[in-house]
Amino acid sequence: MKNIILFTNMSSIKKHWENALKNSYETVCIENFDTLAHYLKKHNDKIILMLDEMSVSNIDDALLKLKKYPNAIILIFNAIPEVYHAATLLGSGIKGYENSYLNKENLLKMLTTVEEGNNWLFADLTYFIINKYIQNKNKDEPDFVPLLTEKEKNIASMIAEGLSNKEIAQREKIALSTVKGHIHHIFEKANVTDRISLALKFK
Fold this sequence. Notes:
Blueprint: E1 3-7, H1 11-21, E2 26-30, H2 33-42, E3 47-52, H3 59-66, E4 72-78, H4 83-89, E5 96-99, H5 104-115, E6 120-121, H6 123-133, H7 150-160, H8 165-172, H9 176-190, H10 195-201
């Protein structure tokens, strides 16, 4: 899957996206929603749609109309991403939500993630969901906890509390790269691929 639709009428966002994606993806730039609908109707292959939220008058209405086109993998972007608003969009079939000016490295990582069938949520939203919706009510340990080292148990608990990698590194007084290594092992032992799934196991 190498074609991507860039839907925005903001020249600065369009330029940022085009520069980040050149040499990696073929891009089709569309500024009008009717033109977008016509394009999706004509092309039945799976295609990623990078949708600038500021370029549509009503995002809920736009997403409702886009449900007619299951071939579109929808990613929402906003120049000022808002955590609570993003959380309300999760049930609308979107596969990702990010800052419009996400740096090239992370944008490419985001696209790879959704191409593999996974969702992509910006970090603040992940922590918001864990803190707001996945509170640790059950004090019984999940089945995988005995497989963890003491350090991994501590870090897993902190992830379940909604702490970021940086906060864990500061609390444990270890390098950020070390935290990432521990999290990789924790995910393997817990048989999960993301922080939210891990936190749910502690629910």
